[in-house]
Amino acid sequence: MRRDVFQAIxxxxxxxxxxxxxxxxxxxxSVTEHFDIxxxxxxxxxxxxxxxxxxxxxxxxxxxxCEAKLGKLGEVSDWIxxxxxxxxxxxxxxxxxxxxxxxxxxxxxxxxxxxxQK
Length: 118
Description:
By secondary structure, the chain is mainly alpha-helical. It has 5 helices and 3 strands, in the order H-H-E-H-H-E-E-H.
């Protein structure tokens, strides 16, 4: 089954594994030590990360090292980007509206202390 990046980062354990190996390659035992789950469970998470292209496992002697390949996270960034533009547009419109009502004379606002109209 071919997995995508969104499936991989949906799980908090996999996100933490990515965070750990983004800074340095670690062997599977080192990764396992940081979690309260079995080594087999960590292997399953690593397998999913490998299937979607976020991790590459390299054999070095008898050890298997996990190396992050974070380029595929660009897909997530691109997807989020469309919503970033949406919210920036909405927030810019709100800022414009608030600036307009603050500069209009005679606008009555409630005082925080007394709750009375100014």
